[in-house]
Description:
The complex is a heterodimer.
Chain A: H1 2-7, H2 21-24, E1 43-48, H3 63-72, E2 77-79, E3 85-87, E4 90-95, E5 101-106, H4 120-131, E6 146-153, E7 156-161, H5 168-171, H6 179-182, E8 202-208, E9 212-217, E10 230-235, H7 239-247, E11 253-255, H8 258-264, H9 268-273, E12 274-276, E13 279-280, E14 284-289, H10 299-308, H11 311-318, E15 323-325, H12 348-357, E16 370-371, E17 374-375, E18 377-383, H13 387-402, E19 406-412, H14 414-422, E20 429-434, H15 443-446, H16 464-473, H17 479-496, E21 499-507, E22 509-512
Parallel strand pairs in A: 1-10, 18-19, 18-20
Antiparallel strand pairs in A: 2-3, 4-5, 5-7, 6-7, 8-9, 9-10, 11-22, 12-22, 13-21, 14-20, 14-21, 15-21, 16-17
Helix pairs in contact in A: 10-12, 11-13, 16-17
Chain B: H1 2-29, H2 34-39, H3 47-57, H4 63-75, H5 90-125, H6 130-144, H7 147-161, H8 180-218, H9 221-228, H10 233-255, H11 257-261, H12 265-270, H13 276-285, H14 289-317, H15 319-328
Protein name (chain B): ABC transporter permease
Subcellular location (chain B): Cell membrane
Keywords (chain B): Cell membrane, Membrane, Transmembrane, Transmembrane helix, Transport
Amino acid sequence: MLHMLFRLGVVAALLLLLGACERQSEVSLPGMSEALAPEYGDTFIEASIGDASNLLPVLSSDSASSAINSLVYNGLLRYNGQLELEGELAERWEVSDDNRILTFYLRRDVRWHDGSPFISDDVKFTYQLYIDPEIPTAYAESFSQVTRVETPDPYTFIAYYDTPYAPALLSWATAIHPRHLLEDTDILRSPLSRSPVGTGPYRFSEWVSGEKIVLEANPDYFEGSPYIRRVVYRIIPDVSTQFLELQTGSLDFMGLTPLQFDRQTDTPAFRRNYNKYQYLSFGYTYLGYNLRRPLFADRRVRQALAYAIDKQELIDGVLLGYGVAATGPYKPDTWVYNPEVMPYHYNPEKARQLLAEAGWHDANGDGILEKDGKPLAFTIVTNQGNDLRIKTGEIIQRRFREIGVDVRLRVIEWATFLKDFINPGNFDATILGWSGGPEPDQYNIWHSSKTAPGQLNFIGFEHPEIDELLERGRRVFDQEQRKLYYDRFQEILAEEQPYTFLYVSEALPAVSRRFRGIEPAPAGIRYNFQHWFVPAAEQKYTR
Amino acid sequence: MLPYLARRLLLLIPLLLGITLISFVVIHLAPGEPTDLQTQMNPQASAELQERLRRQYGLDQPLYVQYGQWLGRLAVLDFGESFAGDRRPVIDKILERLPVTILINLLSIAFILAVSVPLGILSAVRRNSLFDRATTILVFTGFAMPSFWLALLLMDWFGVRLGVLPISGLKSLGYEYLSFSGQILDRISHLILPVFVSAIGGLAGFSRYMRSNMLEVIRQDYILTARAKGLSEHTVIYKHALRNALLPVITILGLSVPGLIGGSVIFETIFAIPGMGKLFFDGVMMRDYPLIMGILVMGAVLTLLGNLLADICYALADPRIRHGQQTTGKG
């Protein structure tokens, strides 16, 4: 799911409904209201913290590669601005009545960047690539449910499933690879890794390692040539440097931090040159409790800790207000979100009371609660390099201390953090985040079959009803039906508090003012990039 | 001289082996594996994938087998393929980063020498004068200043406020369309800040070193003799004293040979320069063992050769050592 998100270039969603209303007036929303006719030309320059690793989508999992690949390749389907699946390489598709056969009718006017026609064999080849045991792809899982595929003619592709699998449609948004260039070659050493050939709106032009990647508009794109003639990804590893480059106008796009968005760009010069946007991003930050520890076995303790955390304080302190409180794994502006769950408003009294019920009292008067002579103390671990999580931990630490819970905070380098702490289950509690997408399936994170070392249910959460809801949820295609299951799923999570869901942050991009055609939607702003344009008089890069 | 050289070169081999063995073991001791980054915390990655990747990278073999295989490849100068997603040959990755790293380091050393040698001499000659004290404070300020902070200040000042220098990168966007002289100017303007920032920290050490050498030499009898002969102060300082004071500089230059291929991850990150420091740092973060080992081996070879070179140059430059060696003969 992470992959899909990056691939589609939809690293975000809705122009906020909640909390942001008063700020919205400051944020100018330009675009089609000026009713300019789109014009071709100009260059769009953005920066990436890291260099791309591999421009064959099957082999890459980093965000820089995915950002490039999303412009160079197409999937059969894609998300539109409203986060609905629509056809891309597929003109239309059918789901059989028993939900086990997906039939895609492909567009007939698509050509690879080298001029060869795109046909159903390419789709079949891509599927085989993803399930090939010799290809180390991080995305085999979504295709493992497919039992067989068929290509009755060059423009029809059929996938068969044993059991209905709702996330299946999404998996066909995966980038389709060119069979004629890859078949019978050593995929791991393919030249396409560094000079990709896709069907997408942009063609690969140049890659200078560690410096930049350049894409040129594809004049033969089946949806018409994109207006912006060139896209340049500069590799600038330091965000402060990126911000300085943005201020000199050398960059046309940057995702800002709350501090930059709120304070450092609040200048007339910046407002003259850039438009700022804000919308809730997919993903949330949470405090997860290791349920294998006796300390967290009692639900009342987890609930008490949830009451002791002031989520609004975290949002104001850490995100400068650019976020909303999370109550479950879904963000508030999606269809699957359940607004009825127990919200756990900050209430230290209630927290103390719940802990007392669970048998925790301050017997020796040192300010820390005890039970059977043992103090209520634990360690929260989080990974290095994420300042927001560390700050969150510090604020939580103080709030917990106020209700008599002694918490230490440990920050650990990422690889060590996973290897020695998370995977073996060697932690008390952790502050981490999940990013997600419009697809609500949460099987891998919450199902009790996913609790082995190295799997994603590393807190050891086991709940028969949740298991059943998750199994049902991924078998049904009907949104109304799915919502019933996932509403109940969110209710139980809120009740049980295996995680205390903390906040969903906002994406805060700034885009150079000369770009028009930007239409903020639930999917964010990048979903219609090929329709962005610069009026001829404002074009900056003429060559 | 030749047998001495041959013996020194032979001695390098076990030393190099020892270095690679220790490095190999140490980097494998670090928790986490190259496969982790690609598979962990990813709902789509299966346990089989992890195993498959480990097999492909040879990580399922015992450590001594892995070391043996690596050494075997190294013997034919094959550094192997990177474990990063692109699987490019390590040597390609290093070679594409090397020129800019060496260029900046050479410029930086030249800058350090050009500034700190005169500074050191003047400070020594005018010991405890106002000039001496002021330069001491200045160079130590430069030494103590965090380079990332200085870099950001300079970028903000010259790049954003004054707008006279580019902020980051090596070339401007329209570089291909510039005239030849324009291209040269573009290159130079991109190098000014990085070279200055990378040199500023080295000024303190080198100028203090130069100063104390000079003070040492001035106290020597032969300087007294030179003065007694009635030579001008200028001749005494710049002819007799300076030459001798410069001798230890050779050692330092020799020691900085490995530094030529090492970059600073901090200023490379800030200035968005694709150099060796960032390459190594990323390699370590991703546990890209072949890349890490490749860079370490090159560094080790250059360190050892640099030492050797310094010793040889020393002998060439200093008659005392040259003759000393001949009299001690085989020793």
